[in-house]
Amino acid sequence: MSETTTDVRDTQEPELGEAGAQLSTAPQEQAVPGSFGGMRAPGARGLLAWTGREAVGWARWFWRQLTSMRVALILLFLLSLGAIPGSLIPQNSVDELKVADFKERHDVLSPVYEKLQLFDVYSSVWFSAIYILLFISLIGCIVPRTWQFVGQLRGRPPGAPKRLTRLPAYTTWRTEADPEQVREAALAMLKKRRFRAHIAGDAVAAEKGYLREAGNLVFHVALIVMLVAFATGELYKSEGGKLVVQGGGFANTLTQYDDFRSGSLFNTDDLAPFSFTLDRFDASYERSGPQKGTPREFKAHVTYTDGVDGPQKKATIEVNEPLEVADSKVYLISHGYAPVVTVRDGKGKVVLHDAVPLLPVDNNVSSTGAIKVLDGYKDKNGKKDQLGFAAFFVPTYGGPGNGTMFSQFPALDFPVLNVGAYHGSLGVDAGLPQNVYQLDTDKMTAFRDKDGGVLKKTLLPGETLTLPDGAGSITFEKEVKQWASFQVTQQPGNGAALIGALAAIGGLAASLFIQRRRVWVRAVRGEDGVTVVEMAGLGRSESAKLPEELADLAVTLNAEAPIAPDPVVPADVPVEGAEKSCASPGDTASDSGPAAGRTSGSNNTSATPHESSRGAMQ
């Protein structure tokens, strides 16, 4: 994102010239377009020209603001705020039944939410506007900075400023080596340290840390990739759920789903062709201790085919270990029990024989549901009728007289099935959608026991409940199957989103921890014929590492260009500046490297690399 604050080095550009410029590709902040000010009001033709220039100025200013870091952060913050109601308020794209239920319970808030499009947050006008503005902001930031960065890579580090002493990190010493020899040694040393370096005039110019800006650009490009991936996934995604009983199967067609949701641009023809069969389901639980009943293993063993006529393959689906087939992922969501029941009419004809899945209501898999006989049943008079049984199943019954019907353990240790019998209209002939796990008794009549209550009975495996007046019977067979619920998702863009996220992390790390800096080494012959070596460094921001790095470079170069001894001056000859406290180079530099500080004639106010008012490296 474009930086709107001026770097510390920008204020030094008049002094440092090109050497202090372009340490960053961030555009400079521009002032808001002004008005006439103190100028005389223009005429009609001038007013028209001024209006055009003013419009262009305002457009440029607006573009600068849109592509600035401040506005981009505001847009990101607004995008995060916009996602909050999408998480707290039911969404039509996720569950329309929950939305309808919310509207029934909140008749005052619902109209307001509908006007604000809070039931469709991610497809709303305001959320899309924020999303698009953020997208434009990122692109507007990246494109000019990329071209500027490419230009910097193709160019060379700028030459040394006239006064290296003005730079924040600086050191100097005198050597008997030739200036050309010093510059060649400095050039080889800097290139060995992976600096981009070249000789410019009487100095060596070097620069390092280009990966900082590259990381910044990678971070912004990765954000765009993530935004595109997110938009693609939302527009073209599909997601559906399917409950499969052991021995049953599923084919990836729209009619096979229990529930199905998709993006606005998704086409049902894009459903990947595959199918699978649930061969068996394995579950194990903790048998003792404080975690008794805690699931230890859930495994769905399936046989699947990739494509219409693909070969059959075996696979095991576990929690968080989906089956990946044909650009889709099949997740294991939940599991339960499906007791096998047989329903007969008054003449003993079997009208239903099936495993009926029931939904768990607690951690011990106490389950509830409905057993419905829609067709084929006739009462004792031969008249067509429908049967319904309210069912409650427990895999581990505590036994009669213990005060509870709920299961004591999730495994099939002592299964029982409690049923309550009804007959009449199940309400399915009206053509309205109906929950298959609930029994609507509004248009049904309960079978009565001898006390006048609803006819109910708790059945053990193999036991039968006989309906009164020769109406038939229901038998709990000695078999209980297991079922598994699967979620099938097809969401393009997940791979790109993952790559974008990893690239964003890497780019951000590079932009935070890599410092872009420039180093100059000047070597000129002094008036006394001794070569004066100056080294200085400049970074994009103040950092303690820059002086340390410059000190290390100076020590390394000092091995090729050792410090020259000070000239011997007779005691009776006055020396200019003798009132200053002078130290011989050997007193300070022999152990610590080159002396630091400002030169004064042939003598130095010498200090070790970590001494002096500015530090050895200023």
UniProtKB/TrEMBL annotation:
Q: What is its main location?
A: membrane
- Where would I find the ResB-like domain in this sequence? 69-550
Disordered: annotated segments: 1-27, 567-618
Looking up InterPro entries in the UniProt record yields: Cyt_c_bgen_Ccs1/CcsB/ResB, ResB-like_domain
TM region positions: 71-89, 125-147, 217-236, 495-514
What membrane topology does the UniProt entry give? Multi-pass membrane protein
Q: Where is the composition biased (Polar residues)?
A: 599-610
Keywords in UniProt for this one? Cytochrome c-type biogenesis, Membrane, Transmembrane, Transmembrane helix
Query: In what ranges is there compositional bias, type Basic and acidic residues?
Result: 1-12
Q: Where in the cell is it found?
A: Membrane
Would the keyword Flavoprotein be found if you checked this record's keyword annotation?
no
Q: What is this protein called?
A: Cytochrome c biogenesis protein ResB
Native organism is Streptomyces sannanensis
**Which taxonomic lineage does the organism of this UniProt entry have?**
Bacteria, Bacillati, Actinomycetota, Actinomycetes, Kitasatosporales
